[in-house]
Amino acid sequence: MDLDTDLEKLYAPATERNREAILAVLTEVLPQSGLVLEIASGTGQHIAFLAPRLSPELTWQPSDISPAHLRSIAAWCREAGTVNVRPPVQIDIGLNWSSLTVERPVAILCINLIHISPWSACLGLLAMAGECLLPGGVLYLYGPFRRDGRHTAASNESFDQMLKMENSTWGVRDLETVVAAAHEHGLALDEVVTMPANNLSVLFRREAAGSPGIPTITGNADQTKPALD
């Protein structure tokens, strides 16, 4: 056993409950090659599980805001023996993502972030995806959402109240509000998939350059996360 790896690994039990369902969705929607950027990789359990089970031609770039999470991501990937995952990058999606330079991704994943961060973090994520994704690229969000202004389950309502007690800027987001904000950045809603435990997978695609509201860009891309998988 690698003692350093074992000590650095953080553990989120929910990851083991939702990772197979997330894998099933991503198997259907991710391309076979290109860069996949994960925002707010948290413990690193998701990327260490997903990367070896999807196309080997995909390259994965994890990221997080927390130094402890960055160490955990590296430890989980080291234990999993991943060969197509880059070292994690530190980023605060609300502040400094535009300063990073990586090639433009074919997909951006963000699992369980936007309800445990300020609304500005969600807006930053959408702005980044609209600017940096390749045309037709996928933005994948996973987590709880309100629909038509209502919670989808009593447990989600209780969870929302708990989040707001912990931090008044957190909370379960209205799906329609997220979709409208995404549209402002040239991201079109592609699919909503019902997931276990009253969560949703929400998929957007970046519209082609030259579409209304989408500038033609030549530049680069980026990353983040708190973590509650």
Q: Nutshell version of this structure?
A:
The chain has 229 residues and is α/β, with parallel strands linked by helices. The chain is built from seven helices and eleven strands.
* Strand count: 11
Order of helices and strands: HHEHEEHEEHEEEHEHEE
Please give the alpha-carbon distance between the first and last residues.
25 Å
3D shape: globular
| Count of separate DSSP helical elements | 7
Q: What percent of the residues sit in helical stretches (DSSP H or I)?
A: 25-40%
Structural class, by secondary structure, is alpha/beta
- Provide the gyration radius in Å: 17 Å
Tell me the major beta sheet: 6 strands, mixed
What is the beta-strand fraction? 15-25%
The overall pLDDT average reads: 88
Unreliable segments of 5+ consecutive residues: 210-229
Sheet with most strands: strand arrangement? 2-1-5-6-11-10
Overview of this structure, please?
With 229 residues, the protein is of the alpha/beta class. It contains seven helices and eleven strands. It has helices at residues 3-8, 13-29, 45-50, 67-80, 119-132, 154-166, 175-183, and strands at 34-39, 58-61, 63-64, 89-90, 107-111, 138-143, 145-147, 150-151, 173-174, 187-195, 199-206. A six-stranded mixed beta sheet has the order 2-1-5-6-11-10, with helices on both faces. The protein has a three-stranded mixed beta sheet with strand order 8-7-9. β3, α4 (67-80) and β4 (89-90) form a beta-alpha-beta unit. The longest helix is centred in the first third of the chain and has 17 residues, at 13-29. Mean pLDDT is 88; it is low at 210-229.
